[in-house]
Design brief:
alpha+beta, 5 helices, homodimer
Chain lengths: 178, 178
């Protein structure tokens, strides 16, 4: 698939805006993702406010380049699809529950659908996840039983980075057993 | 993207085999996935042995339909890319480390590249992950510091299931804040 081969993480964007209908198109692709028992734990926050983007960038390892992107898509996993009365929970990076691993897995799948669908229509993106839950949740009013899996920046590229290196397949591949 | 819209989870396969070069093609797409700090935690085990597939199906919630698929692709996340001396660790479903969440996330991205690349070439798949680490690792000789994220069945479909329902986008979508 060309989208997989050609896609690069882009951290420099030009001034061209991305309209809501384009973002909705990407989220439709996310919505169709497979998930464990079809539980669909994903939620999405579309952020365009420069003030909010600056706050996000600040807690996301101070990656100020993020502010330049016209839209942030915040991908949030909801453990409530798997645990009743989750409203009393406070999810952290060090929380041990299997259900948290499952909703992170499934939301990552949906997020990658956003990434590949964007590439398909000539829109550039970058995965970011260099924040702590306790720092990013208050910025966006996210309840403590939700886990922010990533913030995807989206926009039109103003750079042409070369491919990053990848490990050889032989070093990753096993036949019949480890 | 047609692959995202049209893809279904397939649990009934015909007798047609899938050759190694086709599986390698899928794993090349997985290998190109993005990952946090380009750490690439993924490993893959290609399983064709009927005995091993039956053992996997047995610990994977006894999903006997899995045996019918000619190939299982076992997707394994290696925490060693993030933690030194991980060889002494024993990862479990209830392990609390942030690094485990990160490698699950990244391996899920790579696994979905397999799923979508398969759809692109007319090959059908199903995500499965209804096993415990302590049950599946011994079958495949996987060290205790690796975490099995999923077993993907692959083959040629012998069924045409209708789309599973998905939540409306409106119920998942937020603007500017939660």
């Amino acid at each position: 698939m060309d989208e997989i081969v050609n896609r690069r993480s882009i951290r420099t964007y030009n001034n061209k805006d991305v309209d809501d209908s384009t973002i909705i198109h990407l989220l439709e692709a996310a919505r169709l993702a497979p998930s464990g028992s079809n539980t669909q734990p994903w939620n999405f926050i579309i952020v365009r406010s420069n003030v909010t983007k600056a706050k996000i960038a600040s807690v996301d390892h101070n990656q100020t380049w993020m502010i330049q992107s016209p839209v942030h898509i915040v991908c949030v996993a909801d453990i409530g699809v798997r645990i009743q009365n989750s409203i009393e929970m406070s999810l952290q990076e060090e929380s041990p529950m299997e259900e948290l691993k499952q909703i992170i897995r499934d939301t990552a799948i949906a997020a990658e659908h956003i990434i590949l669908s964007a590439e398909d229509i000539g829109l550039s993106t970058c995965w970011t996840a260099w924040f702590k839950q306790n720092d990013i949740r208050p910025i966006l009013g996210i309840p403590s039983d939700k886990y922010v899996v990533c913030v995807i920046t989206a926009g039109y590229s103003d750079e042409a980075p070369r491919p990053r290196p990848r490990k050889d397949l032989e070093s990753l591949l096993h036949f019949e057993k480890w």
